[in-house]
Amino acid sequence: MKRIITFWIFLISIFVNNAVFSAGPTGKIENIDFSFEGVFGTYDKNQLQRGLQVFTEVCAGCHGLKHVAYRNLGDPGGPELPPEQVKAYAAQFDIYDPELDDERSAIPSDYFGDSMVENAPNLSLMAKARVKGPEYITTLLRSYNEEEKEQAGSVLYGNKLYPGGWIAMAQPLWGDDVEYMDGTEASLEQQSEDVAAFLMWAAEPKLNVRKETGFRAVLLLMLLSVLLYFTNKKLWAPYKNKKA
Ligand code: HEC
Question: Is residue 105 classed as helix, strand or coil in its secondary structure?
Answer without folding.
Answer: strand
